[in-house]
Design brief:
about 10% strand, single chain, six-stranded mixed β-sheet, alpha/beta, binds 6-O-phosphono-beta-D-fructofuranose
Length: about 550
């Protein structure tokens, strides 16, 4: 397998980056000398606007990045994904989350969608009730990683799209192995009107299974064993394990091994979302994602949104040396988006071995972090503005508010625009001094009021946060992640890196429970682990 870093296209970009870092005009100078910069470096797509004019690029950079896309043969990989080839090579699986959002899905997918629709209707109009006949008022999704982050984020993101129901339900999410999460959730619930969704692709994940068993005990203690059938449903690819847990086939929503955990929101894993916003709205979410799929597969690289985002990320990471990416949604409803994208990008592309087992030879997924604006402004923006690190930012905002109160949205948008402007423009010492002189301020403060600027950012604008646009947004980041993985030569669809810790935890469990003496593992335990264990096992 040829290494991308040895290609002439990569070397050309290395040259351009040297110029960019040593002698290129700053973003402020570029905007001053290029009146068409916004027009040249922004894309409109199906109601979205992606402005990347505040990235540290010029036309030569973009041309070279487009050449890199061709050199990595991305279009062939797009075709392979669509054709259902086993592009998850280490697990020998197809990668077909795109098939879950096709307007005319395959029979199995359509069957589960109908099952979800019927289930939502039965819960909403209280035809399906708890074992004592009470309507279901609380739904607890127990899952972790992809079986939690996507639905939890989407339920919050789409709170404004919830339709009034005859018997409305509150949706809760429990993921953490720490009993604090489940216990504090159950403390406010009544088993008679609570339904549990156990969401786990494998149905073996320790965190989820421990929580599921505790939830089952809580329910059985109050209502008896026979109540399990009315209060538990499962979402999984592992039907025998679901059955062994005691959830019958009629209460099981299937999905398939060709859906990766972090890409599973579009499958039955989205059941809690469908329950929250209604089945029709859930179909709109799928439809927005499908529209982005169509755009991604059918648009030349020069106007392709996920491709452009991916290539800019490669430029910032591999050529300008940024080790991180800040996700800054100016939408409280998108507060959980950074966490969701952490799993999507870092679990997919946080790897150093290529598909053929050889080293990648360059940095891969940046450390992704972030927070909703304006909260982030009052926490860490100081460092982005004056901390001296290169921190590429993705700003995300909506033209219309999803929740309205007079004055809020205009102020929020002004802050979003102001932040990317400040990051781009910076403030010179002379400007800081002039400001202080104009206001009679202490001139000694000028040094502290200098902003280097030239900090790269992109801004994605949505018309409004609703199911369709959320679908577009998430599929955009999915395809971006896929493209970057192809360019780095890695398999974005496995996650071997999470296995080792799990394996060691299994070995240590008898020591933390006290079932096994510490010295039985003395030969294999390092002194740090042994010392901590001994301290923890004190009475
Ligand atoms: O963190 C590893 C992982 O396998 C994720 O990829 C996945 O989303 C999560 O655990 C949960 O897995 P499951 O849905 O099988 O319980």
């Amino acid at each position: 397998m040829n290494s991308i870093i040895a290609t002439p296209e990569w070397l050309k970009l290395t040259d351009l980056a040297r110029q960019e870092l040593d002698e290129a005009p700053t973003l402020r100078e570029r905007f001053a000398s290029e009146p068409d910069r916004f027009r040249n470096f922004s894309l409109a797509c199906d109601g979205l606007l992606f402005d990347y004019s505040k990235q540290r690029i010029d036309q030569n950079t973009m041309t070279a990045l487009h050449a890199l896309w061709r050199s990595a043969n991305v279009p062939a990989w797009q075709q392979r994904m669509r054709a259902g080839d086993a592009i998850n090579t280490s697990e020998e699986r197809a990668v077909l989350h795109i098939a879950l959002r096709a307007p005319q899905p395959a029979d199995a997918v359509a069957r589960v969608l109908r099952q979800m629709r019927d289930f939502c209707a039965e819960i909403h109009d209280a035809r399906r009730r708890g074992a004592t006949g009470k309507p279901i008022r609380h739904i607890v999704n127990i899952g972790i990683g992809g079986s939690d982050l996507g639905p939890k984020m989407a339920v919050q993101a789409l709170a404004a799209s919830r339709k009034p129901q005859p018997t409305p339900q509150q949706i809760h999410f429990v993921s953490n192995l720490d009993a604090a999460h489940l216990a504090s959730t159950l403390a406010n619930l009544d088993p008679r009107d609570t339904l549990f969704i156990i969401a786990s692709k494998t149905f073996t994940t320790q965190d989820t299974m421990v929580n599921a068993h505790s939830a089952r005990q809580w329910l059985v203690a109050a209502l008896g064993e026979a109540a399990v059938a009315r209060h538990f449903v499962a979402i999984s690819t592992n039907l025998p394990a679901v059955q062994a847990f005691g959830i019958e086939a009629g209460n099981t929503f299937e999905f398939w091994d060709w859906v990766g955990g972090r890409f599973s929101l579009w499958s039955a894993v989205g059941l809690s979302v469908a329950l929250a916003i209604g089945h029709e709205n859930f179909m709109q979410l799928l439809s927005g994602a499908h529209a982005m799929d169509q755009h991604f597969f059918n648009t030349p690289v020069e106007r392709n949104l996920p491709a452009t985002m991916a290539l800019l990320g490669i430029w910032n990471t591999n050529f300008l040396g940024a080790g991180n990416l800040a996700i800054l949604p100016y939408s409280h409803s998108l507060e959980l988006l950074p966490r969701y994208l952490q799993q999507l990008e870092m679990e997919s592309n946080g790897k150093q071995v290529r598909r053929d087992g050889t080293p990648v030879g360059c940095d891969t997924a940046p450390i992704l972090w972030g927070e909703a604006g304006s909260n982030g402004q009052h926490a860490f923006y100081q460092l982005i503005h004056q901390g001296g690190r290169l921190i590429p930012c993705d700003f995300i905002a909506c033209r219309q508010a999803d929740f309205t109160l007079p004055g809020h949205h205009a102020a929020l948008l002004a802050n979003c625009l102001a932040q990317s402007e400040a990051l781009m423009r910076g403030k010179t010492h002379a400007e800081a001094l002039a400001e202080l002189r104009a206001t009679g301020g202490n001139e000694q403060l000028a040094a502290f009021k200098v902003f280097p600027g030239n900090q790269p950012s992109s801004t994605l604008l949505l018309p409004r946060l609703e199911p369709y646009t959320l679908g577009q947004l998430l599929a955009l980041y999915e395809h971006k992640t896929f493209v970057q993985g192809i360019i780095w030569g890695i398999n974005s669809f496995d996650q071997w890196g999470v296995e080792y810790g799990k394996q060691l935890a299994q070995r240590l469990l008898p020591l933390t429970t006290g079932a096994q003496a510490i010295d039985t593992l003395a030969d294999t335990l390092d002194s740090s682990t042994a010392g901590q264990l001994a301290w923890l096992r004190q009475p």
